[in-house]
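Researcher: Please predict.
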Amino acid sequence: MGKLKCFEIIFDENRTVYHPGELVKGQCIVELKGDMKMRALRIFMRGVAKVHWTESRSTGTRLGNYTEHYNAEVEYFLKKQVLYGGEQSDVREVLLEGRRHEFSFSFELPIEGISTSFEGKHGSVRYWLKAEMDKPWSFNHKTKKAFTVISPIDINKPEYQLPVENSVEKTLCCWLCTSGPICINARTDRRGYCPGESIAISADFENYSSRTIIPYATLHQTQTFFANGKSRVRSTKFTVLTGLPVSPGNRATWDAQLLKIPAVSPSIMNCHVIKVDYYVKVALHIPGAYNLALHLPIVIGTVPFRRLATYLTDTRMLQEALFASNLVVPSPPPYRESPTPPPPIDFQIDGPPTYAETISGAVNLYDDDDDEDHRGAMGELTFTPMYTYVYDYRYRAPPAYTEMDPHPRARSASSRL
């Protein structure tokens, strides 16, 4: 009876991040010490969103409390390939010692309907491969490897380029005395961002009270889990930006103060059991009173911001510029009922995508479908999701407003046509 020296899954080109519609390709590697009999070598690819939390309930009697479990699951896909041997239980193949056995596999991810990989407090969206060696008269050997799937959110779309604005005010009361108002008016430069970028916050703070107040801003993530008709919410605070104190009777202004976004999960809006939202909290710390705060909801996307996109939003101007450059505007693609995969990233404009491990850290890969004692388990036992991350991001203020035509040459050329 042979023994396993190596049993692992590797991806082509050492990839760890994939997008909907792409092929997940690689090899299952087997190295033996001695010949080994087996019925088959199979590999599975699964994508699933799971939610679980517990709540303590009182029986109202002397029996004490009991624990109620809340569970929900959405399986996106479960695919299988036989890499060696067959499905018949009485057929036994022999793998020989002395060389490295490589078994290639290839799975296609669905084009739509799958969410971004996520590891949360009470649930996860997880994608993984599991290879299983079916051995006669013995427990099976297994190896497992997870990978990240990123469902695209392009923050260069017009709806993510609009700023988010809000305002709030309050007065302080002490017995029969009422102070003047304390006000916040804040806005972001846009609604959509990618990890690694910075949120430019502009704000006006008015302090007509008798107390010195301190402005600050924080980035918050809200995880919402759904199961059995109920929901569970977990909030996490990330980066903090603190301003200078504002003395009584004075005002203060923030002009594009930058709040850095760490390597966090993108917003998740297309999952039935998990939702991930983000907002910027702009607040004033008021000694001896409740703080004054407002929320600015934002979206964390997966396609980094391109300054070029903001100049190409006017279709008429773009067409005139193309005519002036003797270029031809391509005709729209034919109508199709079937889903179409998202267009590939143009590396000449965007450069190759860059990723970073999430700041939440690694998680254990063992799940309910694994053996409790983990017998025969090999391979990587932990997993850290990778998300789009913009390195060396530099904030650039938008161009100043002007009524002058930014493309006078293009307009004059088109008028002559």
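Model: The chain is about 5% helix and 50% strand.
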